[in-house]
Design a protein that fits this description.
The chain is α+β, with helices and mostly antiparallel strands. Helix content is 28%, strand content 16%. It has one domain. It is built from two helices and three strands; from the N terminus they run βαββα. The protein has a three-stranded antiparallel sheet. It is globular, with a radius of gyration of 13 Å.
Length: 69
């Protein structure tokens, strides 16, 4: 799979690329519920690594041809 995010880049809340997976409120809900991609919390700043975002996206990939009916 092609990477949706740059592997070696760090993303912070407000980066427009994060809108691919959810808006700021959705990401906050996921963090509260211990869901969504892995992240770092440094003080009040939340940081997502591109490699973690790509791994999370790959784990949530749905292939309709492989789904049972």
């Amino acid at each position: 799979m092609a990477n949706l995010f740059e592997q070696n880049r760090n993303y912070v809340l407000g980066d427009p690329e994060l809108d691919l997976i959810g808006d700021r409120d959705k990401l906050a809900q996921w963090r509260h519920k211990k869901m969504g991609p892995a992240y770092y919390r440094l003080g009040r700043k939340v940081i997502y690594r591109g490699s973690d975002l790509n791994a999370w996206a790959q784990a949530n990939r749905v292939d309709p041809s492989e789904e049972s009916v």
